[in-house]
Amino acid sequence: EVQLLESGGGLVQPGGSLRLSCAASGFTFSSYAMTWVRQAPGKGLEWVSTILGSDFTTYYADSVKGRFTISKDNSKNTLSLRINSLRADDTAVYYCARTVREDYIGALGYWGQGTLVTVSS
Amino acid sequence: QSVLTQPPSVSGTPGQRVTISCTGGSSNIGAGYDVHWYQQLPGTSPKLLIYGSRNRPSGVPDRFSGSKSGTSASLAITGLQAEDEADYYCQSRDSSLNGWVFGGGTKLTVL
Question: Is A113's Cβ below 8 Å from some Cβ in B?
Answer without folding.
Answer: yes
